[in-house]
Design a protein that fits this description.
The protein is mainly beta and 64 residues long. The strands form 2 sheets. It has a 3-stranded antiparallel sheet, with no helix packed on it. Strands 1-2 form a two-stranded antiparallel ribbon. The chain is built from no helices and 5 strands. The protein binds zinc ion (ZN).
């Protein structure tokens, strides 16, 4: 029950502007975050190694 976590914060680079994007805890595959620098939406496509890709622009037009 005393497993040591080697990485408290996980960090990667924004594929859009190369700014550092950090996660306060280990991200999950498919998690979407936002670059604090260019505001691009980034999707975690792999967690080991941590890979970020621009999230596809989804138009929130669901029709009615
Ligand atoms: Zn960025």
């Amino acid at each position: 029950m005393s497993q040591t976590t080697t990485t408290a914060a996980v960090q990667s680079a924004c594929p859009e502007c190369d700014a550092s994007v950090s996660f306060s805890r280990a991200p999950l595959n498919g998690q979407v975050t936002r670059c604090s620098d260019c505001r691009a939406e980034l999707e975690v496509t792999s967690v080991s190694p941590l890979t970020l890709e621009l999230a596809p622009e989804v138009e929130e037009d669901w029709g009615e």
